[in-house]
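Lab notes, practical 5.
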Amino acid sequence: MSAATSLGELLAKDAIADVLARYSRTLDWLDDAGQASCYWPEAPIDYGFFKGSAADFVPVVMAIERQSARRWHFLNAPAIRFIGESLAEVETYGLTAGAHLSESGTYAGTLYGGRYLDAFEKRGTEWRISRRDYVLDWSHPIPDQPVFDPNAAFPLPILEILGSGHPQYRTI
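Output from the prediction step:
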């Protein structure tokens, strides 16, 4: 492999990792446009409960995320195999937690472990997801947790991301 090819693959891997980081961030911050920018609009998406195009999927997944008072998506480093200069197969393991505020004033939810089986395609200078299959490996309930009010003895900031446009969100 030439130095130019190696450098090209390293830059492509970095660009793909950036898309995956943006995917998680835009779900957690409820950024619809940022979420849409992770996919080519016609990309086939299969989450089991949803099968269709990315353009149709984004409003569905964002509506689901808005049902959680707290959400958190964490992805590991992706495994990437290039199929030419503009196509890649990518597998990424992920943990997702979502919690809702119960009538008793506590938070409860579910922790999910799964993997994203993606194809990425580069068009022009931009890499995006061109196919996604999500596989759920396991889930675990998160029992009632106390409301996360700041503790006067150990005050930490608490984000309340209940809608798009949070003042602390930055497009990166």
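Observations recorded by the TA: Residues 3-28 form the longest helix (26 residues). Helices lie at 3-28, 32-36, 54-66.
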